[in-house]
Amino acid sequence: MDALSYKTISANKASTTKNWHVIDAEGQTLGRFASKVANILRGKHKPSFTPHADCGDYVIIINADKIRFTGNKMNEKEYKFFSGYPGGLRREVAKDILVRRPTYIVEHGIKGMLPKTKLGAELFRNLHVYAGAEHPHAAQQPKELKF
């Protein structure tokens, strides 16, 4: 037997190829959608996945303002913001946030499913979320990905 066949190959930045994907969020359920996108950002869909390295792909999400919630979450789900001062806790319902900052809900959901480390922060930089159907990344020739 050849000794090289037993070696475990660990991916790193130099040995991985990062692709660009465009994903349409229109009509998608937030939690299920966020978990699939987090797996792509992490690189778990690749056979060369390495837990400690950034081997995931770049993801462009369009139509983030048309994301869907199940049940009555659109009117009941609260997002909390704390200013750091006494009495500085603010709560806002998902329906109001979609009007004010439509990309926040999708970004927040995906960020919560990434590692809470420096690696997670690096992976989050590979995510680009847009409220409308247009994006400025045509030069990267992204491939459309459907779930």
Which keywords apply here?
147 residues; alpha/beta; Ribosomal Protein L13p, Chain: A; four-stranded parallel β-sheet; two-stranded antiparallel sheet; 27% helix
Strand content: 15-25%
Structural class by sheet pairing and helices:
alpha/beta
If you average the pLDDT, what whole number results?
Answer: 94
Helix-strand sequence: EHEHEEHHHEE
User: Could you tell me the number of beta strands?
Assistant: 6
Number of helical segments? 5
* Low-confidence segments: none
Biggest pleated-sheet summary: 4 strands, parallel
Task: State the CATH superfamily name of the domain at 19-69 and 101-145.
Answer: Ribosomal protein L13
Q: Would you identify the CATH architecture of the domain at 19-69 and 101-145?
A: Alpha-Beta Complex
Task: Please outline what is shown here.
This protein is an alpha/beta fold and 147 residues long. Helices cover 27% and strands 18% of the residues. It has a domain at 19-69 and 101-145: Ribosomal protein L13 (Ribosomal Protein L13p, Chain: A), CATH 3.90.1180.10.
